[in-house]
Specification:
10 strands; 10-stranded mixed sheet; 41% helix; UDP-N-acetylmuramoyl-L-alanine:D-glutamate ligase; alpha/beta
Length: 296
C-alpha cells in the first residue's frame, strides 16, 4: 500500500477546519446512543455525557430494561428507553425495532458502548444497521459493535461513507483478523485497510491516534497521555465524536476533532490530577473548555 500523506493535528490545523456552528434548535442535533448491559452499566452514561458536552442537542439512550431507570436518573437531560434483554444481560435481538424507531430522524447514532458480548452485539446490530441510514444520519460503531463489521465487512457501505469506526488496537486487530502486534507495527496501513474495505472513517490508536478515510486521507493525533488508558476512556471518545456529528461535522472532521479533544482532556487532567489516576468520568467536563479555546 503506498504511503499516504499524513496531516499532524494541531489546534491551528483545527482552526482552519472549523466545526459547523451549534444549531439553535436542539431537535436539529438529535442523537441516539445504544448500548449498555447489566455487567457494564456505565458505558452509555459516559458516552452520553460526552455527547452532550460536545454538541448533541436532544439525546436519546436505548439500553437494557433493568438498567434504564438508573441511566434516566443519572442523565436527567436524556430520554431513556429500556429495551428487551437477553438472559445474559445484553440487549436482545427484539430490541432492534425499538432502536430503529428511536433512530428515525436522528442526525447521529452511536452503537456499541457497554455491550458485554460480541455475539450479542453482532446479533442485534445485524437487525439494526442494514435498516439505518438517511442522507442526514451518521452512524458511529464503537467497541464490541465492531463485531458486526468483523462478520459483515461491507455491512455499512449502504450508509454512503457516513459511518465512523472507533476500534482500539485489539478491536482493530480482531476486525481485520490479524495479530495485535501487526496493528501496533503498522497502525496507518491497518486503519486504511479497514477504512477502504468497510467504506468508513476509522479512528484508532494508542499513544497516538490515527484517523483514516476510504480516500486514503490520514490524520495523526498526538494529543493525549498515558492516563487515558483507563476503563471508560474509549466510551468518552465515542461520545464526543457522535456529539460532533450531531452538530453537523463530517465523519472525518468529527473523528479528527473528537480524537484531539479526547486527548487534550487527558492532558488537562494529567496536569491537574496526575499522569495516572484520573477517571474517565472526569473527561467530559473538560470538553467545552477545550472547544472554546480552539474556536476562539
Amino acid at each position: 500500500m503506498p504511503s499516504p500523506e499524513v496531516t499532524v493535528v494541531t489546534s491551528a490545523v483545527l482552526r482552519d477546519w472549523p466545526l459547523p456552528p451549534p444549531g439553535e434548535n436542539k431537535n436539529a442535533a438529535r442523537t441516539l446512543i445504544v448500548g449498555g448491559s447489566c455487567q457494564n452499566p456505565g458505558a452509555v452514561i459516559l458516552a452520553s455525557e460526552a455527547a452532550l458536552r460536545s454538541g448533541a442537542g436532544k439525546l436519546q439512550v436505548a439500553t437494557v430494561a433493568d438498567l434504564a431507570p438508573h441511566v434516566a436518573t443519572v442523565l436527567p437531560e436524556a430520554l431513556v428507553q429500556g429495551l428487551p434483554t437477553r438472559p445474559d444481560g445484553d440487549l436482545a435481538v427484539g430490541a432492534a425495532e425499538g432502536i430503529l424507531e428511536l433512530a428515525e430522524g436522528c442526525s447521529s447514532v452511536l452503537l456499541g458502548p457497554g455491550f458485554h458480548s460480541a455475539d450479542a452485539a453482532a446479533t442485534v446490530l445485524s437487525a439494526v444497521v442494514p435498516h439505518l441510514g438517511t442522507t442526514d444520519t451518521t452512524v458511529v460503531l464503537d467497541a464490541l459493535a465492531l463485531a458486526y463489521i468483523t462478520e459483515n465487512r461491507d455491512g455499512a457501505t449502504h450508509l454512503g461513507g457516513r459511518v465512523i469506526l472507533t476500534p482500539n488496537v485489539s478491536e482493530l486487530a480482531n476486525t481485520l483478523q490479524v495479530d495485535a502486534s501487526q496493528v501496533e507495527a503498522e497502525p496507518v496501513d491497518c486503519a486504511l485497510t479497514l477504512a477502504m474495505s468497510a467504506h468508513a472513517v476509522v479512528v484508532s490508536g494508542g499513544q497516538d491516534s490515527w484517523v483514516a478515510t476510504p480516500e486514503s486521507h490520514v490524520w495523526r493525533v498526538q494529543s493525549g497521555s498515558r492516563g487515558l488508558a483507563v476503563s471508560g476512556s474509549g466510551d468518552v471518545q465515542a461520545g464526543v465524536i457522535v456529539g460532533l456529528c450531531a452538530r453537523g461535522a463530517s465523519p472525518a472532521q468529527a473523528a479528527t476533532w473528537g480524537a484531539h479533544l479526547h486527548g487534550r482532556a487527558g492532558e488537562r487532567l494529567a496536569a491537574t490530577v496526575g499522569r495516572l489516576g484520573f477517571l474517565a468520568r472526569e473527561l467530559p467536563a473538560q470538553i467545552p473548555r477545550i472547544l472554546a479555546e480552539i474556536e476562539v
